[in-house]
Recover the amino acids of this structure.
């Protein structure tokens, strides 16, 4: 079996920067990523640089291209289209590529698998025509597809970013329905001073909002009691805003309530997690150098807690420096500087987290709302199971099959933990999360039957 | 303050602890169940749900039979259907040699007075399993077996027991068992409990309690592994095993297929962690495809494993203590104890309440593992832990 000093899962800014730094320290490095090209979510297809995509990404483009270039030049091995479906306690990684499964061993493993969008259970969210803002944005980035009547619903920086990108692409959203309650501004105001070192982010945020205004996109603020109407597909979105009920006709709705760390990989390795009240999400418990409670397993990028692309790249480098240090290599002189820069980059976070905390609508959906889409389990059924005595997500799963479908609970896990916690009057950290088991993504039985083949390798350049 | 004394202290809130507690309560005993995690957290809540008499060790057959009678009217006992469904259990023969072995087994059982396992010829096999591979020559079936929902079942037993006054102490580990006068004292994370009788249903962890009672036995922690596929068109209504390679295979009502069959992952009982070993599961995948070619197109969406105690001879300990009067054991069910839960609980309650039973439990005596000298009836040795 192939073996590497470092195996990195995920070729976004964190993974790419980590690989380049690890190679610089002379460590043998492999990067696995399920996409056909490096870039991750934010810099998806960054190497395919047509002018349209450059315009979309604006200033971020140059940064992404630079990281990708350094990664390609680093000499790290890279397998694209590689779906990692298991990692065991000996850091043996099983992944599927080219229709076959392969195994590789890592001395150190870096999960750079980023963030996923928070589940947004609300009436009608499973109707065809409803997607997430992240998914709509990927569609725009990769194929330039935008729906002319797209209504963006929810809150968070990504909502505004996607809106401004759609405007740049010439297809502005039909409306924005923002769920940030008025009272949040007061709560967020407390963090303004601390956020000042991050003024660039704030300026960018205001610029995006101005662009939306200039483009004439109607913005409904302080919206609540949101529902998507439709029998077999979405036909309208309704909500209360300014103490009035509104109804916007549309066949396309994109929902968003912020992003949260993708915990599947760290969960499958039995790393400890904690619930972060400010991010309202489970985070892996990490050392200063981003090492999990499982020795030799690190998390870089948004998987360590939401920090954005800049932080992701810096964390990736810091992780590589730590691995190099452990391997007895001299520590890069840049480490202290990098740590300071990372702290500065994070200054804006408490403000954003307070302002864009998920709305109550999705944290405590009404009984009739579907929560687990794969198995069609409602919030009411989950509350009933709790009333019968189920103490946590795993028992609710055993009872109802919630989280047992093909998505492995990615789409409902956080919502299920929140609903159980609220019903029991406990914190999500007490009720905890689904136990995650491999395969992390569906795997053909015939592919498992042929497990053990050697890995094809493609040098990054 | 909670009442910390009882007629019976049960260690372990799996199917066996819950069933024994329920049956003891039905006999009027005051019972406390001490569970280090939560009820049904381990093997009993996460097993494959197979309610199977087919293919059992001959010694287990009478008890399994008694249990099956309870399964067929499970709702009367626990006010919950436990998701139990009757379904044929079938062991497939891939060769004439396999089939001969199965025929010999059926004959042996008939000689013992049991008729529930019947031989299937080529045609009969296909009548039950239209999707079976061409090369399979026949099989052995137990037509009135079935399967149930494991967590729902264990939970139903505990709920019914609770309703009859049984107290469950969860997140409460029994650390030390001692004897004070005629009573047992169990020191836990949350204080000391005392009871006139003690029942060890500690599953994979039961060895420690047995050791403290002065009768150490080897309980190997194992982690049976299971795979689950995405939904498939309905093609199989029986629970299927194989005579010569490990397999347990069933399609659920929603179309997903659950595949297991004895292959074991890594069990870490100290941390409650079990880990799957896919290089082993490869064989399970091969076997499933060999028996049902339609499985070539299946994709695995989930897997799991649970921690279960295995005895060196593969059958459980169902036994009075040989060292302490009033202490009893029911553990080490070696990957097939779910089906036996209802029946063994009834037997243990009878033993606890009356000190005796007619059930044929001699083959399961804890003394069968004792070194030669002890097995020959010498007085029980007093070891650490019991001199309080
Ligand atoms: C994946 C899998 C599939 C299986 N499939 C089948 C099947 O199809 N059919 C079948 O018949 N059987 C099956 N089995 C086997 C079956 O699940 C077990 O034999 C049965 O559940 C054992 O029950 P138990 O009560 O002895 O053990 P457990 O359910 O393990 O319960 C023991 C309990 O004791 C507790 N405990 C231990 N020590 C202490 C202590 N010191 N203090 C407090 N509490 C303690 C533990 O926390 C645990 O909850 C399967 C098992 C697994 C893991």
């Amino acid at each position: 079996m192939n073996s590497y000093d470092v195996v990195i899962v995920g070729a976004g800014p964190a993974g790419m920067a980590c690989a380049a730094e690890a190679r610089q320290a002379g460590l043998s490095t492999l990067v696995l990523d399920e996409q056909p090209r490096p870039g991750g979510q934010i810099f998806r297809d960054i190497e395919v640089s047509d002018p349209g995509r450059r315009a979309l990404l604006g200033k971020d483009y140059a940064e992404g291209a630079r990281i990708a270039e350094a990664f390609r030049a680093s000499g790290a091995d890279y397998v694209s289209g590689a779906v990692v479906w298991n990692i065991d306690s000996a850091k043996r990684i099983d992944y599927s590529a080219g229709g076959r499964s392969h195994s590789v061993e890592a001395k150190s493993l870096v999960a750079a698998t980023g963030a996923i969008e928070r589940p947004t259970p609300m009436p009608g969210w499973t109707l065809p025509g409803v997607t997430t803002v992240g998914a709509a944005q990927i569609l725009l980035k990769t194929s330039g597809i935008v729906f002319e009547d797209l209504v963006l619903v929810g809150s968070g920086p990504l909502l505004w970013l996607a809106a401004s990108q759609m405007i740049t692409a010439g297809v502005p959203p039909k409306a924005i329905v923002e769920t940030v309650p008025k009272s949040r501004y007061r709560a967020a105001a407390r963090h303004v001073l601390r956020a000042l070192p991050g003024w660039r982010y704030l300026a960018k945020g205001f610029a995006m909002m101005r662009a939306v205004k200039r483009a004439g996109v109607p913005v409904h603020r302080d919206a609540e009691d949101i529902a998507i109407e439709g029998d077999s597909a979405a036909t309208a979105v309704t909500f209360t805003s300014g103490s009035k009920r509104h109804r916007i006709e549309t066949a396309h709705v994109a929902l968003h309530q912020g992003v949260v760390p993708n915990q599947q990989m760290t969960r499958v390795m039995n790393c400890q997690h904690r619930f972060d009240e400010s991010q309202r999400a489970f985070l892996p418990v990490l050392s200063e150098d981003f090492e999990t409670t499982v020795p030799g397993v690190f998390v870089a990028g948004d998987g360590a807690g939401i920090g954005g692309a800049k932080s992701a790249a810096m964390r990736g480098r810091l992780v590589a420096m730590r691995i190099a240090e452990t391997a007895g290599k001299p520590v890069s002189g840049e480490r202290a500087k990098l740590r300071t820069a990372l702290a500065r980059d994070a200054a804006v976070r408490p403000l954003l987290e307070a302002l864009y905390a998920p709305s109550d609508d999705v944290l405590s959906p009404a009984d009739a709302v579907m929560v687990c889409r794969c198995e069609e389990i409602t919030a009411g059924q989950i509350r009933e199971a709790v009333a019968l005595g189920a103490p946590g997500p795993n028992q609710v799963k055993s009872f109802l099959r919630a989280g047992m479908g093909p998505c492995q609970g990615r789409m409902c896990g956080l919502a299920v933990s929140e609903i159980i916690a609220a019903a029991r009057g406990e914190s999500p950290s007490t009720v905890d999360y689904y136990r995650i088991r491999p395969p992390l993504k569906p795997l053909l039985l015939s592919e498992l039957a042929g497990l053990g083949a050697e890995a094809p390798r493609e040098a990054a350049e | 303050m909670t009442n910390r004394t009882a007629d019976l202290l049960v260690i372990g809130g799996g199917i066996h602890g819950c069933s024994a507690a329920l049956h003891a309560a039905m006999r009027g005993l005051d019972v406390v169940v001490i569970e280090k995690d939560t009820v049904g957290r381990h093997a009993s809540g996460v097993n494959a749900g197979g309610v199977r008499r087919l293919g059992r060790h001959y010694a287990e057959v009478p008890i399994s039979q008694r249990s099956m009678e309870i399964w067929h009217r499970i709702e009367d006992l626990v006010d919950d259907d436990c998701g139990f469904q009757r379904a044929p259990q079938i062991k497939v023969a891939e060769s004439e040699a396999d089939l001969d072995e199965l025929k010999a087994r059926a004959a042996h059982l008939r000689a013992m007075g049991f008729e529930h396992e019947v031989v299937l010829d080529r045609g009969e096999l296909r009548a039950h399993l239209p999707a079976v591979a061409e090369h399979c020559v026949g099989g052995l079936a137990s037509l009135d077996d079935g399967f149930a929902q494991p967590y729902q079942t264990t939970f139903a037993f505990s709920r019914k027991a609770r309703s009859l006054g049984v107290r469950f102490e969860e997140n409460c580990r029994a650390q030390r068992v001692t004897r004070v006068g005629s009573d047992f004292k169990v020191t836990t994370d949350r204080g000391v409990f005392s009871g006139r009788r003690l029942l060890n249903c500690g599953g994979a962890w039961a060895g420690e309690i047995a050791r403290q009672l002065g009768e150490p036995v080897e309980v190997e922690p194992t982690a049976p592994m299971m795979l689950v596929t995405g939904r498939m068109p309905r093609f199989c209504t029986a629970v299927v095993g194989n005579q010569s390679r490990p397999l347990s295979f069933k399609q659920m009502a929603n179309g997903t297929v659950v595949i297991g069959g004895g292959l074991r992952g890594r069990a870490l009982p100290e941390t409650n962690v079990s880990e799957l070993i896919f290089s082993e599961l490869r064989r399970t995948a091969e076997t499933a495809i060999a028996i049902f070619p339609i499985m070539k197109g299946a994709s695995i969406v989930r897997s799991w494993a649970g921690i279960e105690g295995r005895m060196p001879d593969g059958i459980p300990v169902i036994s009075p203590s040989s060292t302490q009067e009033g202490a009893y054991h029911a553990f080490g069910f070696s990957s097939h104890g779910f089906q036996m839960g209802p029946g063994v609980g009834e037997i243990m309650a009878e033993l606890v309440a009356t000190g005796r039973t007619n059930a044929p439990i001699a083959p399961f005596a804890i003394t069968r593992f004792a070194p030669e000298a002890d097995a020959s009836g010498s007085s029980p040795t007093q070891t650490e832990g019991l001199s309080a």
In short: Chain A touches chain B at residues 86, 88-89, 94, 103, 270, 388-389, 391-392, 395, 398-399, 404-406, 408, 437-439, 442-446, 448-452 (CB under 8 Å). Residues 2-116+260-351 of chain A form a domain with the FAD/NAD(P)-binding domain fold (CATH 3.50.50.60). Chain A is about 35% helix and 20% strand. The radius of gyration of chain A is 22 Å.
